[in-house]
Design goal:
Layout (H helix, E strand, L loop, with lengths): L5 E14 L9 E14 L3 E5 L6 H8 L7 E6 L2 E2 L5 H10 E4 L13 H12 L5 H14 L16 H13 L5 E5 L7 H17 L3 E5 L3 H7 L2 E6 L2 E7 H6 L4 H8 L13
Parallel strand pairs: 3-8, 3-9, 6-7, 7-8
Antiparallel strand pairs: 1-2, 1-4, 4-5, 9-10
Bound molecules: adenosine-5'-diphosphate and magnesium ion.
């Protein structure tokens, strides 16, 4: 057991992928996508993870959700070592942690209306709810992501990119998670929608005390909502500091490169105007 104040703790986590032989002369190759990552996230805190594409950020989140097997190390959720839990044993912990994946659009069933998409997790995790309670809860969820009731019967393709994003956040919130993990969810949208999503996540974090693990290659956006930032490269954790330390006084040359690569240079406490 570890201190229960941490919603998440990782201890020397290693995740690898085996690239199988597609032809007799190909060598079987193991790619270590996450290489000995240790971190902890206190309840209600927001932690950002930045790094270039292929650095292992998505794999790290998938491993935490048990979507990919881990090679070694330990994962603690709310103080419980869930590393070797079966999917059935892990099921109560799935409610505590929710992930909004990088390709969130492909996870929204194109044939289901907004109402059905939000009803699905409620039916699975809260089967005792009456039809009226479910309807009210769906209204609350739309409210919490600042979406209008008039969108209830729309299909995902009838929503804007920003609305689809908010819908996937609302679906994640349906199970009352203690930790929301967002994987590059703002990279595909315009600046206005980015700002809206960032302020929505900030308010979920500050008002509802939902812890955030926010992954992005955009340090300026991450520093907008997270107090602490981790820099990841080639599966390893390079540097960990407060947003202002990372943006203005980073120790590692790679972090300096990342900061300099952003046209909207951050000033340590948010997006530059
Ligand atoms: N399903 C997979 N099978 C094999 N290799 C993968 C798979 N997913 C990711 N990888 C490889 O793992 C490394 C880390 O990928 P990823 O976690 O997606 O990084 P990031 O999210 O930082 O861009 C990359 O080299 C990628 O090619
Ligand atoms: Mg990724």
């Amino acid at each position: 057991m570890v201190e229960a104040e941490n919603i998440l703790k990782l201890d020397s986590l290693v995740v690898d992928y085996i690239h199988r032989r597609r032809a007799p002369w190909w060598k079987r190759r193991t790619l270590v996508a996450v290489n000995g990552v240790s971190l902890s996230l206190a309840k209600g805190e927001a932690l950002g993870i930045v790094g270039e594409s292929g650095g292992g950020k998505s794999t790290l989140l998938k491993a935490i959700c048990k979507f990919v097997p881990i090679r070694s190390g330990h994962i603690f959720i709310d103080g419980v070592d869930v590393t070797h839990f079966s999917q059935k044993e892990f099921s109560p912990f799935r409610k505590k942690i929710q992930m909004i994946p990088q390709d969130f659009c492909s996870t929204l069933d194109p044939r289901m209306s907004v109402e059905k998409i939000l009803a699905e997790p409620l039916d699975i995790h809260f089967p005792h709810l009456t039809a009226r309670e479910k309807f009210l809860r769906i209204g609350e969820l739309l409210d919490s992501v600042e979406m209008d009731d008039s969108l209830l019967h729309r299909l995902p393709r009838e929503l804007s990119g920003g609305q689809r994003q908010r819908l996937s956040i609302a679906r994640g919130l349906a199970v009352n998670p203690e930790l929301l993990m967002c994987d590059e969810i703002i990279s595909a949208c315009d600046l206005f929608s980015q700002k809206q999503i960032l302020s929505l996540l900030t308010s979920l974090n500050r008002k509802k005390q939902i812890a955030l693990l926010f992954v992005s290659h955009n340090i300026a956006a991450v520093s907008h909502i997270c107090r602490d930032i981790i820099v990841m490269r080639d599966g390893k954790l390079l540097e960990w500091g407060t947003a202002s330390e990372i943006c203005t006084a980073s120790k590692h040359p790679y972090t300096k490169l990342l900061v300099n690569a952003i046209p909207h240079i951050c000033n340590g406490d948010g997006l530059a105007p």
